[in-house]
Design brief:
The complex is a heterodimer of chains A (559) and B (358).
Chain A: H1 21-28, E1 32-37, E2 42-46, H2 51-60, E3 66-74, E4 78-86, E5 95-102, E6 107-109, H3 118-128, E7 132-134, E8 188-192, E9 204-210, E10 213-220, H4 228-233, H5 254-269, H6 275-305, H7 310-330, E11 339-340, E12 343-344, H8 352-378, H9 381-387, H10 395-400, H11 405-409, H12 417-420, H13 441-467, E13 491-498, E14 501-509, E15 515-521, H14 523-529, H15 531-535, H16 540-550, H17 554-558
Chain B: H1 4-8, H2 14-22, H3 29-66, H4 82-91, H5 103-120, H6 138-146, H7 148-159, H8 163-194, H9 199-205, E1 209-213, E2 216-219, H10 222-225, H11 227-241, H12 252-255, H13 265-290, H14 301-322, H15 328-357
Antiparallel strand pairs in B: 1-2
Helix pairs in contact in B: 2-3, 3-4, 3-13, 3-14, 5-6, 5-7, 5-13, 7-8, 8-11, 8-15, 11-13, 11-15, 13-14
Classes of the chains: A alpha+beta (559), B mainly alpha (358).
């Protein structure tokens, strides 16, 4: 914070950009009933009937405009909802808001009026844990089927109990529909998905059409819910959790996901990662990002161009090279499982020169390929006609929905955890955060394309570093005990910048070698929530394009 | 070298030639009918063969070449036997009739789609004496039957009892209205040049020399005489055959497959066949009206004709591999505000120029 640019300091923000939690406690007044220390930041315990008062104060006066994640969990004596709040301007300024509710009547005030993103998060909390949110506009199950019995992450849930699937008669597809504005409206309800060529997985978009225009959309998710959180809760910190992150965002963003878990667990257990391993992590993660963005570009082109055209194949052709490099490095093409707590699984493949040369060849050829994409895609007039000004997401709305990653940056929100909350080796390297102010589908594509170039810059610097690294200092793993048992009741929420945005992990330990609660904050989940805002009044093709520009992976949305 | 000699022979329609060869002249109207039937079967077979090559094989190979792939190469030489394999596969599939479809319309639509395109070839002069009929209003006829396909699309879309199909059918109508008027207007400008609606006359008018450079005679193909109209017609034709960037009624990523969503097995084959026949019919119209029909040096007329329509087919595949799809409202805007204005301007200018010269 330089003196030349004085910005209105938020309540509780000190001059050097940290949070004064005592000032915050004063701000929150008598809504606070206690204070907890989490590893990432202190948290205030708030009365369940004063949630909105507290959150409004934190948002409007203390500047916590980013509700990163909502975690719900059940204790022996109570239910608890934790709102992990951050600031878009400086995500290192964090605060937790813990809302305990009684076990016999878990009722807590909703945060939806304060943060729109809480809508889906609270639905998930209700669905999986069973907390009721008073005043929530639409408290239905989100991941599990409507008729599901019980809440799977609750303590008394019985997984053996058979679930009842009700039979519903097939509705007449041509029945009159008045879901548009007013009872006179003559709209058409159409199911786009779960089996549809453009939904990038099993997504079901309940769409109400007024002619060709969208009157309303509602993404229906959960088809790919695989109890990832529960599976992680049954795995040991040291070895058994690491393979799962690969399966969240499975389109080659594996190492980025692994890093999210690695970072959270290392901070939880206080493990220091050797610098050499950090460089390898940074390099491999950026390779993954290129892979992921190439796929996003190819599939977006598929959505807009309308067929498996040249663009899609070109993107896959170039992605294949990166995939080969990653295969050389990790031995895997899809589920890398390369990171370990305290480092990486193994060193670069021998002969190292060959690996460096292969990577450099790719990086050298990249500018030409990017130019080809620009010629073929972004400078195409029809493409611009289709993408400029469609699927608009104003920055204020993006913040309300907790959008991150290229979706937020395409709306001009300058947030990137690699720079704002540095981890790995990013701080030492020279690269830029890309933002575009268009707020439309076109901007989001441009952001991804330009981020590929930035990633290439990072990889190049990492390669330079690795080439000159003295042979006797190549420590790939820190000395981590065989069994990790973090102290009981330590809690942490940590995020990394994955390909789609902030991928955060919340963990609470209970003194054993397995986490008592493992919560995944999925960037796709939050980004998908914005679809409705983007598509009001747009045409069907633009809705498909917007969906493509969000670059969601259903494995990560549904977990 | 302008192939004038090839055009001259088309004055004898194919049925008469067949009648002469087989000696059917004595049978009166019955003989004429039999001769016409044989002629139609020959032309139909030629077109269906080309479609069979184009659909399962050539399209894949061409797209693969555009997109850095290899495509079919396992069944037979260059994967050519995939044509047989695909035919068997498609025909042996179960014909699924969804609940609540409007039966006669739903069954008729694929036949209308494929049939309307085949009808158009009746008046196309293909060179080497292959010309089924040469009515004085040939050009009007070919546009008329080609647009019957739109009726087929609406039937398919409406009768399928599927919302995606319905949207596709509606889009097909909107698109049809948009391109049909510019298409006919541009063709009318050619009629002004040729002074006739008869296909053979239009081809004959293009056999004259436009100019000669260093011993090379450039024929007066209307693509050279009026390149502006040619380009406009190509675009309108691309809309007519519904290929990218104008494949809006199908729009695989948006409305699944539009009007053809519910068709399977033989019906799907017919719909698909109709589409490819339509592409070829569009190419045949472009060839006849703008590229001198079957005219060309050395090779026989039919070979030139086939080369030309495959070139146009290649163009549609190129567009398919490289261009993004327009939105329906954008298409309508382009059609009504752009294409129609340009088509009228072209017509008026041509009329003035022809009037001054004549």
């Amino acid at each position: 914070m330089s003196l030349e640019q004085p910005r209105p300091t938020d309540v509780g923000e000190t001059v050097d950009g940290t949070v004064d939690y005592d000032a915050l406690e004063e701000l929150l007044g008598d809504t606070v009933v206690g204070r907890e220390e989490h590893v990432n930041a202190p948290a205030f315990v708030i009365r369940p009937d004063e949630v909105q008062t507290a959150l409004f104060a934190l948002r409007d006066e203390a500047g916590f405009d980013y509700c990163s994640c909502v975690t719900a969990q059940e204790y022996e004596d109570r239910y608890e909802t934790i709102y992990h709040l951050k600031k878009y301007d400086d995500p290192t300024q964090e605060v937790g808001v813990v809302v305990p509710t009684a076990r016999d009547a878990p009722l807590s005030q909703t945060a939806e009026p304060v943060y729109r993103t809480a809508d889906w998060h609270e639905r998930e909390a209700y669905d999986l844990v069973g907390i009721q949110y008073e005043g929530h506009p639409d408290l239905r199950r989100i991941l599990l089927p409507e008729a599901w019995q019980g809440h799977p992450l609750g303590l008394d849930y019985n997984p053996e109990k058979p679930q009842i699937v009700p039979y519903r008669k097939h509705a007449n597809p041509l029945q009159p529909d008045h879901r548009g504005e007013g009872p006179e409206s003559d709209t058409m309800f159409i199911n786009i998905g779960p089996h549809h060529p453009a939904t990038h997985g099993v997504l079901h978009v309940k769409t109400v059409l007024d002619g060709e225009q969208i009157a309303d959309v509602e993404p229906d998710i959960g088809y790919l819910h695989r109890c990832e959180e529960q599976m992680c809760q049954q795995g040991t910190y040291r070895h058994q959790i690491m393979p799962y992150p690969d399966r969240w965002d499975y389109v080659s963003a594996g190492i980025l996901n692994e890093w999210a878990y690695a970072r959270a667990a290392e901070d939880l257990a206080d493990i220091e990662v050797p610098e050499y391993a950090q460089v390898i992590r940074t390099m491999s993660a950026e390779l993954c990002r290129i892979c992921s963005h190439m796929l996003a570009l190819g599939t977006f082109a598929l959505d807009v161009f309308g067929d498996f055209t040249a663009v899609f194949q070109y993107a896959f052709r170039d992605r294949e090279v990166v995939q080969d490099i990653l295969e050389d490095l990790t031995g895997q093409r899809l589920m890398f499982n390369y990171l370990r707590l305290g480092g990486v699984a193994w060193d670069l493949p021998e002969p190292r020169e060959e690996f460096f040369e292969k990577t450099r060849d790719f990086l050298d050829g990249l500018p030409q390929k990017t130019q080809e994409y620009h010629n073929l895609i972004t400078s195409n007039e029809i493409f611009q006609l289709r993408c400029v000004g469609t699927g608009e997401l104003p920055p204020e709305v993006a913040k309300q929905y907790g959008a991150t990653g290229p979706v937020a940056r395409g709306s001009g929100v300058d947030i990137d955890l690699r720079r704002d909350d540095p981890y790995g080796y990013y701080e030492e390297l020279d690269w830029d955060v890309i933002t575009e102010d268009g707020c439309d589908n076109y901007s989001r594509v441009l952001v991804r394309m330009r981020e590929v170039e930035e990633s290439a810059k990072i990889i190049e610097q990492c390669i330079d570093l690795l080439e000159d690294w003295p042979e006797d200092e190549r420590t790939i793993q820190a000395n981590v005990p065989r069994t990790l048992k973090p102290a009981s009741d330590t809690e942490i929420y940590r995020g990394v910048e994955a390909a789609k945005g902030e991928l955060g992990i919340y963990m609470r330990s209970d003194g054993t070698d397995k986490p008592a609660r493992f919560k995944i904050r999925s960037p796709c989940f939050c980004n998908l929530h914005t679809l409705r805002e983007m598509t009001q009044g747009e045409y069907v093709p633009d809705m498909i394009a917007s969906l493509g520009s969000l670059d969601i992976v259903l494995g990560e949305v549904d977990r | 070298m302008n192939g004038g000699g090839i055009v001259a022979q088309s004055s004898t329609p194919l049925p008469d030639t067949i009648s002469d060869i087989l000696g059917l002249g004595g049978l009166g109207p019955a003989g004429e009918f039999i001769a016409a039937l044989i002629g139609a079967a020959l032309v139909g077979t030629l077109m269906l063969t080309m479609t069979a090559i184009a659909g399962p094989w050539a399209k894949r190979k061409i797209t693969a070449a555009f997109t850095d792939r290899i495509a079919v190469n396992r069944v037979g030489p260059f994967g050519l036997l995939i044509i047989v394999a695909d035919a068997v596969r498609l025909l042996s599939k179960e014909l699924i009739v969804p609940e609540g479809v409007d039966r006669p319309a739903w069954d008729l639509a694929p036949i209308v789609l494929a049939g309307s395109a085949l009808l158009g070839f009746a008046v196309i002069p293909m060179g080497s004496g292959i010309h089924l009929a040469d009515p004085e209003v040939g050009l009007v006829y070919v546009f008329a039957v080609a647009s019957i396909a739109s009726v087929g699309l609406v039937m398919a879309g409406y009768a399928s009892n599927n919302k995606y199909s319905l949207l596709g059918g509606l889009r097909a109508v909107a698109q049809n209205l948009t391109y049909e008027i510019p298409l006919v207007l541009i063709a009318a400008s050619v009629v002004l040049f040729a002074g006739s609606l008869q296909m053979s006359e239009i081809v004959a008018a293009q056999s004259e020399a436009l100019f000669t450079i260093g011993g090379l005679t450039i024929p007066a193909w209307y693509a050279f005489v009026n390149p502006f109209a040619f380009v406009l017609f190509l675009v309108a034709n691309l809309m007519e055959v519904g290929r990218n960037p104008f494949d809006i009624p199908e729009a695989p990523t948006e409305i699944v497959a539009g009007y053809q969503t519910e068709y399977s097995s033989v019906y799907f084959v017919l719909v698909y066949l109709g589409e490819f026949l339509h592409v070829f019919l569009g190419a045949a119209i472009v060839t006849t009206v703008f590229l001198g029909g079957p005219a060309g040096p050395v090779l026989p007329g039919i070979v030139w004709f086939i080369i030309k329509i495959w070139a146009i087919f290649l163009l549609t595949q190129w567009a398919r591999s490289a261009l993004p799809r327009l939105r329906i409202d954008q298409l309508i805007e382009i059609g009504w505000k752009g294409m129609l204005m340009l088509a009228f301007a072209n017509l008026v200018l041509t009329a003035v120029i022809v009037g001054v010269i004549a």
